[in-house]
Amino acid sequence: MFDDSKAGINHSPIWAKLHQHQRATRFMQMRELFHADPQRFKRFSLQLDGLLLDYSKNRITERTLELLIDLAREADLPGWMTRMREGERINVSEKRSVLHTALRLPQQESLLLDGEDVVPAVHEVLQRMRVFTDKVRSGQWLGYTGQPIRAVVNLGIGGSDLGPLVVQEALAAYSHPDLTVHFVSNVDGQHIARTLQQLDPATTLFVIASKSFTTPETLLNAEAAKAWFLRSASQADIARHFVAVSTNAAAVSAFGIDTEHMYGFWDWVGGRYSVWSAIGLSVMLSIGYDNFREFLDGGYAMDQHFFGAPLDGNIPVLLALIGIWYNTFYQAHTHAIMPYDHGLRRLPAHIQQLDMESNGKRVGRFGEPLDFDTGPVIWGEEGANSQHAFFQLLHQGTRLVPCDFIVPMNSHYGLEQQHRVLVANCFAQSEALMRGKSEAEVMAELPDLPGEELDMLLPQKLFPGNQPSNTIALEKVTPYNLGMLMAMYEHKVFVQGVIWGINSFDQWGVEYGKQLARRILPELDAAAVSSAEHDSSTLGLIRHFRKTHG
Ligand code: G6Q
For the segment 517-528, what is each residue's pLDDT rounded down to a tens digit? Predict the structure, then answer.
């Protein structure tokens, strides 16, 4: 068992030492560090198969990393890694194991949970998914008019949407040419209405993806889809057009889907970690079993690295520690993720959920208040578009914003010159953010100007630089490399949670949101009586809705 009697990590001597180190090095310029050490890139980069992490453009020295690794040891990171891998119930508030890594294990491996090997069950579901997706993809699975399926609609939200959406988009180059995949998540009716407008019920397959099968947004969309489908088909046809992915067999049956058409997973898979489970069914329909297996293999390769590599040569651990360095010791409040790849444009949204839902917590795993800042605000957009939008603030604003640049070295789409320009933009941005532009450099670019004008212009053209970034270069966005990338971020978030003493695997804030809407919904009815418990703003808004809603 782990030690729950410890005071918060911020009371440890190593925490104080890191603060001291930050004070001593805070004026250090990365530009000078690079100048002083031509080996800096070599020293501060790591490669795993087709993924290279360059973390040299950070305000760190070897001493910084040593201290951060001491911090990780103080938080018993190695112990927590073992506890997670072995299935201990580290999600203490929900009394659950955290075993998304088991979903990526090859068939010959085994993992005992309460004395039972979970790997055969994982592979049994994968094989069922394989049989089903093969049938759909080969055109053997026919809709109610005898035509093959041409469109898949994934109905799910949060973890049952974002992960598969990102993978499907990122791997568009691998998708079945005659099958389109749509993702409908929002309870806003326009999302499903606009999607259905493009579709033919006779050739559409709905995948209802919900771990709990109680999420109102998803169930309402599923009901809307069913009603749309039944306008042209009969109840008996549902079996050929609706499948479910869930852990709740009873609710799936109650909805009218035979559990023969349900693909299950387990309570030890958190929603935001579930793309590797049957929640990836829509992805498998699109890219096929073999590519999906490659995606799992990439995740597995990152797991092997994470659980096996020493802390100072461990990609997710280093990313996590560098993140903590800024978040905790520099008080940077945000972290930006910039994929220079159009297919990865929704990755920031997925990482946002992964990170903010996992580590957006104000108490520790035993309920103790944490008196330091925890998870950062994660945000970002695809490059190069973001350069024409918010990069101004990164270059010349007042805030410290650590960034991750993600860029593939090769494109699936030819257009070689465009790809080179994309890559050049990515490298140029991280370089400029690090170097900045000095007074001498600005002066060299300016024409001769009268003194007053120069005084006005010079400061505006200066770039302070010293903005830190990591660059994650993928050889290409293949299923395997994408698997490594996504598993890398999962482990990064876990490591940060361990160091801050957080349970990264519950999400009471999400549950609360579900509760609140349930309370207000009946009060929107014109005939209803409003609860006196509401504040005057909420009451006013409810009344305004009743008055203006037609
Ligand atoms: C993820 C969260 C949350 C969840 C959705 C959908 O970790 O728990 O985003 O995925 O609320 O839940 P269901 O899959 O149960 O519908």
Answer: 888 999 999 787
Among 473, 484, 489, 474, smallest CA distance to 316 is for 489
Which numbered atom of ligand 1 lies nearest the CA of 157?
6
Q: Residues 274, 163: contact at Cβ < 8 Å?
A: yes
Could you tell me the two tokens for 436? 């900045």
Count of CA atoms in the C-beta half-sphere (13 A) of 379? 8
Is 439 annotated as catalytic?
no
Q: Is 158 in the pocket of ligand 1 (CB under 6 A)?
A: yes
The pairing of beta strand 151-155 with beta strand 204-209: parallel
Q: For ligand 1, atom 16, name the residue with the nearest CA.
A: 210
Q: Which residues pair with 244 in a beta bridge?
A: 208, 262
Helix axes 162-170 and 281-308, enclosed angle (nearest 10): 90
pLDDT in tens, 79-110: 999 999 999 999 999 999 999 999 999 999 99
404 vs 385: CA distance, rounded Å: 15
Whole-prediction pTM: 0.97
* Angle at 379 (CA atoms; ends 376, 382), nearest 5 degrees: 150
The CA 70 to ligand 1 mean position distance, Å, reads 35
Are 9-23+30-74+309-434+467-500 and 103-293 the same fold in CATH?
A: yes
* Ligand 1, atom nearest to 159 Cα: 10
Q: Is the pLDDT of residue 7 over 80?
A: no
pLDDT at res. 2: 37
CA-to-CA distance for 380 and 404, rounded, in angstroms? 9
pLDDT category at 532 given cuts 50, 70, 90 is confident
Euclidean distance between CA atoms 161 and 191, whole angstroms: 13
Class of CATH domain 9-23+30-74+309-434+467-500: alpha beta
How far, in Å, from the CA of 487 to the mean position of ligand 1? Answer: 18
Name the residue among 78, 126, 131 with its Cα closest to residue 102.
126
Assess contact for 204 and 198: CB atoms under 8 A.
no
Considering the segment(s) 103-293 as one domain, its CATH architecture is 3-Layer(aba) Sandwich (3.40)
- Give me the mean pLDDT over the 433-442 stretch: 96
Give the pair of three-digit tokens for residue 205: 């397959």
Domain residues of the chain, as ranges? 9-23+30-74+309-434+467-500, 103-293, 436-466, 509-548
